[in-house]
Amino acid sequence: MASELKGRIVEAAQAVRTAMRAAGATTPELGIILGTGLGDFAHALETRTVVPYANIPHFPQSTVESHAGELHVGTLAGRPVAVMKGRVHYYEGYSMQQVAFPVRVLQELGCRTLVVTNACGGMNPDMPPGTIVVTTDHINLMGDNPLIGPNDDSLGPRFPDMSEPYSRELIELAENVALEQRQPLQRGVFVAVPGPNLETAAEYRFLRAIGADVVGMSLVPENIVAVHGGMRVLAFNVVTDACLPDALHAVDIAAVLAVASRTAPALTRLVAEVVRRLDASNSSRASAARSTQAPAVQ
Q: Is residue 298 assigned to a domain?
């Protein structure tokens, strides 16, 4: 028997499919979530249809500046994709399950890979504003988890493994593309906090001491649900402000958005080329899987 959550997912996905059919859009195989100040990325799509979140049943509504609240379905680098132009956050008053609900819908639509982008604060002094960081791991300090509650085995296992929350294969692909594009790309650990206030100097010292390079108020709930559902995840963080406790300044939101906007073209080129090469990545993974299988007994 399907769970109530599964029913809501199917209903939301059906509404999107109806809009897709009307526009002649192809079923997406990859989902992309755009973070603060990065909405212009959607202009890179050959868009077939745009579905406002308000037209999708059970879909949470964005309330934060620069999060448009639209699902764009089209093609990027020749590949069918679904792009979320804006996300919702835990601090907006949504439950963790609601925050991550769009990822469930993307999976129901056919997406097997998820690319997440977000703006973040840089605590590593080697990551000044404007740095693009590929996430290698995360620390969840949000005090909640989107998987709490009854588990629907049709959506994923009760205890999902998190030994590889971000695909190592996709990270390597991103690094190779960045090298060819001469685009600096750093590896980093992301720590998620609930917000909405920014952190104190003492909190930044603590977060840095426990192993984090960058800090933000998103990404982790979406990642957990994606991994729970068997998706591969690749995440890019754009450092928009320096969070150095001994040289801390008040954050100017306009400046944060300006940094994200300046960095968006480079991030768009990077993501588009990664998307273009996903077939090679998939072939490599399939070949590796075959090579590890035991030989047939003669």
A: no
